[in-house]
Write a structure and sequence with these properties.
342 residues, alpha+beta, Deoxyuridine 5'-Triphosphate Nucleotidohydrolase, Chain A, 2 domains, 21 strands, globular
Length: 342
């Protein structure tokens, strides 16, 4: 017995609907539409050919240009200035990336990207660092001319893109063409619904929670929250990995090359303990649940956290004994909120 079209999670469009679905009213552009936009010179453009390996399921990798500018501090140009205007004021020196160059730890750099955008009305974008760059504790985000927000490309923006890069744990080797950030292009303002999210979880099982943790359905409120597992692995007792203080140079283009022992393991948490996390000694930790991402779906936006309100110390409250999934709340020490408004 064959299933009806209405029972399919992602049904095949009817022939008459194909043209309408080529230009959806809302939502992220998937890989096939990103390829089409690149081929036709729409939305995302570059003087150098954009490779097919840059295009991900719902995003496109952005490449570094040939120059990097060492600046005194992080900045936003604001609505009355371009990034170039600010570079004239804040740039300390210029670095040629064509043959590769080292970006030193705890320094801030601005790098013009190879790609630029020409967004239409009701079309916007948002950027985030690639996951591999985040695991290296490299702070990377995108700014635009006349921009007042990090990682957001406003509706209808036409112009260049710049990456702000600040390695936090390792000095890194980059070169022109290295990819540290990625861009998602969105049309319209897709509505968000917890009801739809619960329905999707019921159909495909978005997350698999650990034994003793609240059901995932109960955790869906203004989105699906993730918790940090501070109990650790039952056999090894490892909770996460902390970057070592003195390490060798990291080449960002060498994928699956480095020994994971450049970061040392951390031991288990104590019963009902408070674990203090210093941002000057970053850690990598697993979540306490497993994630399933269905086709044509995108994870929750990574834009809810901003370094604008990061101070040296955060606390994670362990709400259960060790050897169990531990719900955790990360609160900003400035505003004491789990969702920082800045």
């Amino acid at each position: 017995m064959t299933e009806t079209l209405g029972s399919e999670l992602f049904p095949t469009p009817k022939p008459g609907d194909a043209d309408r679905q080529r230009d959806p009213t809302t939502g992220l552009l998937p890989s096939q539409m990103l390829r089409e936009a690149v081929a036709q010179g729409r939305e995302i453009l570059s003087p150098q050919p954009i490779g097919d390996d840059q295009i991900q399921p719902a995003s496109i990798d952005l490449r570094l240009g040939e120059l990097a500018y060492r600046v005194r501090a992080s900045f936003l140009p604001g609505t009355r200035a371009s990034v170039r205007d600010k570079l004239d004021q804040l740039s300390m020196h210029r670095i040629d990336l064509t043959e590769g160059a080292v970006l030193e730890k705890d320094c801030v750099y601005i790098v013009p990207l190879c790609e630029y955008v020409a967004l239409r009305s009701r079309t916007s974008g948002f950027a985030n660092p690639k996951s591999s760059i985040g695991r290296l504790d490299v702070f990377a985000r995108v700014i635009t001319d006349h921009g007042a927000e990090f990682d957001r490309i406003r509706d209808g923006y036409k112009g260049p893109l710049y990456a702000e890069i600040s390695p936090r744990s390792f000095s890194i080797l980059v070169r022109a063409g290295s990819s540290l950030v990625q861009l998602r292009i969105r049309r319209g303002s897709p509505p968000f619904s917890d009801t739809a999210l619960r329905r999707l979880h019921h159909e495909v099982g978005l997350v698999e929670t650990a034994e003793g943790a609240p059901p995932a359905r109960e955790a869906i409120r203004d989105g699906l929250a993730f918790t940090v597992d501070v109990a650790g692995d039952q056999q090894s007792g490892v909770v996460g990995y902390k970057a070592r203080r003195h390490t060798d140079l990291i080449d960002v283009d060498r994928i699956q090359h480095y020994d994971p022992r450049i970061a040392g393991p951390m031991g288990p948490a104590e019963s009902f303990s408070t674990r203090t996390i210093s941002t000057s000694s970053p850690r990598a930790r697993p979540s306490s649940c497993r994630l399933t991402m269905p086709p044509k779906c995108c994870p929750i936006t990574p834009l809810s956290a901003s370094s604008a309100c990061i101070s040296p110390v955060f606390s994670i409250q362990a709400l259960a004994p060790p050897r169990a999934a531990v719900p955790a709340a990360v609160r900003c020490s400035k505003c004491a909120r789990t969702r920082c408004p800045f």
